[in-house]
Amino acid sequence: SGYHRVLEENRKLYNQVQDLKGSIRVYCRVRPFLSERSSYVSTVEHIEDGNITISTPSKYGKGCKSFTFNKVFGQSVTQAEVFSDMQPLIRSVLDGYNVCIFAYGQTGSGKTYTMAGPKDLTEKNQGVNYRALGDLFVLAEKRKDNFRYDVAVQMIEIYNEQVRDLLVIDGSNKRLEIHNSSQTGLNVPDASLMPVSSTSDVIDLMNLGQRNRAVGATALNDRSSRSHSCLTVHVQGKDLTSGTILRGCMHLVDLAGSERVNKSEVTGGRLKEAQHINKSLSALGDVIASLAQKNTHVPYRNSKLTQLLQDSLGGQAKTLMFVHISPEPDALAETISTLKFAERVATVELGAAQVNK
Ligand code: ADP
Fold it and tell me: Which residue's CA is the closest to the ligand 1 atom numbered 25?
């Protein structure tokens, strides 16, 4: 009967979502109060086992809304704790898989802090980028009797749907194209590819990249919050017995701020920026949703960002999204919209809701 068909469809969908839960993980992180604003009351009411409850006061009284993710990190969680269970992900890059880790959230919610770290970088407050590469070197060293690994990085920026190399020394502003080369595994073949073999190599290159990213920014135009930056780590491993070559890659992406811009308040360049950001973030959401539904057509080509990540989203690739929220009451609307986006990506709720229908 029709009813049974619907049940069967729902069961299939649920299984697909369960399959996918292993490959797309969503972690939520709450930024601590910045000291000068610490008199505020946090909008985060409660955190427990992957659940986060946000209080949503309105003129009708006190309300709240809960969201579920693979993990939720509260304000006092350290950089080391955030990174603590990521070793399997790093190991899979050495095994020849593609991995994509990205940071999503409104400007000022802590994306750069999670991925890179604060401006006064110490070993203790280093972000995911440094830790991931550090672990990669340690694991490669452990396998050195059986494998020989070469690691190289690229760092690019996507601003207004234009791709720029961040690892140039002369400050040149060459525009780059994205086209996947199946031979080399490089999808931005003309971006500088720098070999790295130690954490200090990585620190030097990240500093160069960050300096180049600041080019074009003025006090009023903090470009870094309106561009996506991507550190791509290419790993090539040679099996010393069989001679087989394995290729894995890891994209570490600090996305542009997700805040919605009030169209009536901005014009010209600022409006164009906002439209490009909206376009690429919603393209990212669409790609992930369509992967979750196992659609045969996945709309990768709708933005530069999704083109860049094409071979690292879906299929055998593993994806981890860190969604960031600010605890201040004046960020509430953005916080809710961020968590809704993240929940769409996590699809856990979608799966459950469809089954219960
Ligand atoms: P975004 O990249 O989302 O715009 P930032 O990473 O620049 O945000 O964070 C905004 C400010 O908050 C920075 O001064 C940063 O150092 C600080 N910050 C963010 N997250 C944390 C954290 N978990 N612990 C301490 N300070 C943080």
Answer: 32
Angle made by CA atoms 319, 138, 102, in degrees to the nearest 5: 20
Report how far apart, in Å, the C-alpha atoms of 189 and of each of 183, 212, 230, 233 are.
11, 19, 14, 13
Residue 103 reports pLDDT greater than 80:
yes
- What is the CATH classification number for the domain harbouring 84? 3.40.850.10
Question: Do the domain assignments include residue 71?
Answer: no
Residue 208 inside a domain? The answer is: yes
In a domain, 66, yes or no: no
Question: Could you identify the atom of ligand 1 that is nearest to the CA of residue 79?
Answer: 23
What tens digit of pLDDT does each residue of 228-239 get? 999 999 999 999
Question: What pLDDT is attached to residue 357?
Answer: 31
**Helix (H) or strand (E) run with residue 34 in it:** none
Reported pTM: 0.88
Structural domain span for residue 256: 76-329
CB-based pocket (< 6 A), ligand 1: 31-32, 34, 105, 107-113, 118, 225, 324
109 is in an annotated binding site: yes
Could you tell me which residues are beta bridge partners of residue 319? 24, 100
Number of domains in the chain: 1
Which atom of ligand 1 is least distant from the CA of 34? 12
112 is in an annotated binding site: yes
Q: Is residue 69 part of a domain?
A: no
Residue 237 assigned to a binding site: no
The larger pLDDT score, comparing residue 307 to residue 292, is at 307
H or E stretch at 132: helix 128-142
